[in-house]
Amino acid sequence: MNFNIAEFYASYGKFDQIPEPEKPEIAFSGRSNVGKSSLINKLFNRKNLARVSAVPGKTATINFYDIGDVFMTDLPGYGYAKVSKNEKLRWAELIEGYLHSDRDIALIVQLIDIRHPPSADDIQMINFLIDSELPFIIVFTKADKLSRRERERRRIGFASEIPCFESIKTVEFSAVTGEGTEDIRVLISEAVSEEE
Q: Quick check: helix, strand or coil at residue 125?
């Protein structure tokens, strides 16, 4: 899989706007401000492929990126409080519609900030992925922000906080140092090759 050819394809604000699936899809999911755009830009060697925003909750659409034989989808960040109920409902319908549909989802990259215990929304999402039997990995973002000792403490915490933790593949990632980038690329490539 070539990580250097990603191009923005389209944005969809409602599930019924999304065209029929054409090829395998890699979806990126996580709460607002967890670092999805930074991760996407690092994976695909681009500065502004996904727009990084200082304002949480900025991505209110599913953004599709074309990577040759694969689509990458950036799902709206969840869990941002300063959004109207109607907007939250639209996001939920968009995300659930996408994940529940008959799309060829090769892998979901679920992001969690390594510095904090998973939020209730994170746990709800992980349970949804497990119950739906959707293939996923967890990427712990902002790894450079913790010392080795603090990281070890969080690893122990995650083991008891995240359901089925021992059977989930995880990667610690830093957009600053690039740590974990190659590991995530390998897991994505493996998931896509299993689809072929």
A: helix
Phi, psi dihedral angles at 52 (to 5 degrees):
-85, 130
Residue 138: CATH number of its domain: 3.40.50.300
CA-CA distance, 66 to 54, in Å (whole number)? 25
By DSSP bridging, strand 136-141 and strand 105-113 are parallel
- What residues make up the domain containing 181? 7-195
136-141 and 7-12 as β-strands: parallel, antiparallel, unpaired? unpaired
Residue 185 inside a domain? The answer is yes
Q: Determine, yes or no, domain membership for 2.
A: no
Q: Distance between CA 171 and CA 140 in Å, rounded?
A: 6
Helix, strand or coil, per DSSP, at residue 160: helix
If one counts the domains in the chain, the total is: 1
User: Does 158 have pLDDT greater than 60?
Assistant: yes
* Amino acid 82: pLDDT: 62
